[in-house]
Design goal:
This protein has about 230 residues and is α/β, with parallel strands linked by helices. The chain folds into two domains: about 160 residues, Vaccinia Virus protein VP39 (Rossmann fold); about 50 residues, CAC2371-like domains (S-adenosyl-L-methionine-dependent methyltransferases), CATH 2.20.130.10. It is about 25% helix and about 35% strand. The protein is built from six helices and eleven strands. Strands 3-2-1-4-5-11-10 form a seven-stranded mixed beta sheet, with helices on both faces. A hairpin with a 2-residue loop joins strand 6 and strand 7.
């Protein structure tokens, strides 16, 4: 995943409007008409959403990447951040809201691990809480052989990323090649990312198998949709 590029994650995704997305997350939460106080951010990355949510909620997070967890702690010192696998984690407490954003759920890859992950979410959710899951792309819209390029600059670091798409069954494959340039020189990294392609029906079925009632908003934060779930 982001094993090589993690220190530059905020540069790579500096085009994302995290402040606007955080406002949308608050809207999803407030629609529940509950006095929610706590959030668990699963696959929290560098906790950029928490930067804009922490004044409203107490936010903890987990991520598989230790460098992301260290960055998240620096951005939200009051939060409890730990290295953990979302398919199997035990934190010993429950939350009002569990969110898994920016399509991170796709990294579970298989329907079996999707269900197992959603069971973990349910087990860490307060009885009247809500789960927000922003999905990855569906199998019908994924195209192979596509090449994309993005360039950006942040805090004196220039970044160019070229990606090539491939597929193995219902797993999307993205091969990334990065160039990071600053006054000290140029660095080059390559990474392969694999993410499961789940249909809407498979996603809804997985939520139900995990003991959750679910609604599907087709728009979501950035057009990929949002699943809003509660304990059945």
């Amino acid at each position: 995943m982001f094993d090589l590029s993690s220190k530059y994650y905020d540069v790579i995704y500096s085009f994302k409007d995290y402040e606007q997305e955080a406002r949308q997350v608050r809207e999803y939460i407030e629609r529940q008409s509950k006095d929610y106080q706590t959030i668990l951010d699963v696959a929290c990355g560098t906790a950029e959403h928490a930067v804009f949510l922490k004044q409203h909620y107490a936010i903890d997070g987990i991520d598989l990447n230790p460098e992301f967890v260290a960055i998240a702690k620096s951005k939200n010192p009051k939060g409890d951040y730990s290295v953990a696998d979302m398919t199997r984690f035990r934190l010993g407490r429950k939350y009002d809201v569990i969110m898994c954003l920016f399509s991170s759920i796709g990294y579970v890859k298989t329907p079996e691990l999707l269900v197992l992950t959603l069971v973990q979410f349910r087990e860490h959710l307060n009885e009247d809480g809500v789960i927000l899951v922003e999905p990855w792309l569906t199998p019908d819209v994924w195209t192979t052989g596509r090449v994309d390029t993005i360039t950006t600059e942040r805090h004196g670091i220039h970044m160019s990323r070229m990606s090539h798409s491939d597929r193995a069954g219902n797993v999307s494959i993205m091969n990334f090649s990065y160039l990071f340039g600053s006054e000290v020189g140029i660095e080059h990294y390559t990474e392969e990312h694999r993410m499961g392609l789940f249909t809407v029906e498979e996603m809804i079925g997985a939520f139900r198998e995990a003991g959750l009632d679910v609604e599907h908003d087709t728009q979501g934060l950035i057009g990929r949709g949002m699943y809003i779930a509660r304990i059945a």
